[in-house]
């Protein structure tokens, strides 16, 4: 690293400044990785304690002692996201089958693709709920109430696209809030929701493109 640094920074003052910077980095790394210089407590939990903890409450599966959130609260939130995805699957399926006529082809293709992606999201979310020790709620009863996004049939192709765009924007807002709340409490669920959110953002962009295409 030093050789590269020297070849790139021939000026002595810059080199000195860089030396200072690297020393600070090195010092901070040693403090956090070794731990012994700052505190007597080791930075990482020792192996024996980790193993003991893992053996205790094995029935909790992926939810270990340092899981930072209440799994019940997380699975409740995820069940709302699951309902949102399921309602989106149903709405996109309805729109796909109702989009008729030669000029509806590109919209129909998007509706079908989105329906399939919402189904994948629903599956991912359901699997995570089970991993956290909860039960995914697939009950049709109350589905529309549990969902954040709405099921709107739409009278015309343009209506359908607009309603889908509204639903995506609702999902985007609510998933952003869920992600912010999860923070460092549950990084795995947060990452999953971040991936889902990225796809919802693409969906919204696709729909806006369709509106443009149909000059709506
Ligand atoms: Fe989705
Ligand atoms: Fe979506």
Q: Which secondary structure elements does this structure contain, and how are they paired or packed?
A:
Layout: H1 2-8, H2 12-34, H3 47-55, H4 71-98, H5 105-131, H6 143-146, H7 157-182, H8 187-213
Helix pairs in contact: 4-5, 4-7, 5-8, 7-8
Bound molecules: fe (ii) ion (FE2) (2 copies).
One fe (ii) ion binds near residues 114, 118, 168, 171 and 200.
Structure write-up:
With 216 residues, the protein is mainly alpha-helical. It folds into 2 domains: 2-44, no CATH class; 71-213, Ferritin, core subunit, four-helix bundle (Ferritin, Up-down Bundle). The chain contains 8 helices and no strands. It has helices spanning 2-8, 12-34, 47-55, 71-98, 105-131, 143-146, 157-182, 187-213. Bound molecules: fe (ii) ion (FE2) (2 copies).
Keywords summarizing the entry:
Ferritin, 2 domains, 8 helices, mainly alpha, disordered N terminus, 216 residues, binds fe (ii) ion
DSSP, total strands:
0
Hetero groups bound?
A: fe (ii) ion
Whole-number total of structural domains? 2
Structural class, by secondary structure, is: mainly alpha
Task: Give me the strand/helix succession.
Answer: HHHHHHHH
| Residue runs with pLDDT of under 50 for 5 or more positions | 1-10, 25-38
Oligomer: single chain
- The CATH class name of the largest domain reads Mainly Alpha
* Fraction in helix: 55-70%
Structure at a glance:
By secondary structure, the protein is an all-alpha fold. The protein contains eight helices and no strands.
């Amino acid at each position: 690293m030093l050789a590269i640094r020297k070849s790139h920074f021939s000026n002595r003052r810059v080199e000195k400044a860089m030396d200072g910077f690297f020393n600070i980095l090195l010092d901070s790394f040693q403090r956090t990785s070794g731990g012994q210089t700052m505190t007597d407590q080791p930075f990482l939990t020792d192996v024996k304690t980790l193993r003991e903890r893992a053996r205790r409450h094995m029935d909790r599966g992926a939810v270990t002692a340092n899981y930072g959130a209440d799994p019940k609260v997380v699975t409740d939130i995820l069940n709302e996201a699951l309902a949102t995805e399921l309602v989106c699957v149903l709405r996109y399926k309805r729109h796909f089958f109702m989009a008729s006529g030669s000029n509806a082809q590109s919209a129909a293709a998007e509706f079908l693709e989105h329906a399939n992606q919402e189904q994948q999201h629903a599956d991912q979310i359901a699997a995570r709920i089970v991993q956290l020790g909860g039960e995914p709620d697939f009950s049709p009863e109350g589905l529309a109430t549990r969902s954040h996004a709405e099921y709107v049939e739409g009278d015309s192709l343009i209506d359908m696209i607009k309603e889908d765009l509204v639903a995506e924007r609702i999902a985007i807002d609510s998933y952003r809030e869920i992600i912010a709340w999860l923070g460092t409490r549950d990084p795995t669920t947060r990452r999953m929701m971040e991936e889902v959110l990225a796809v919802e953002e693409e969906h919204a962009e696709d729909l806006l493109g369709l509106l443009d295409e149909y000059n709506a």
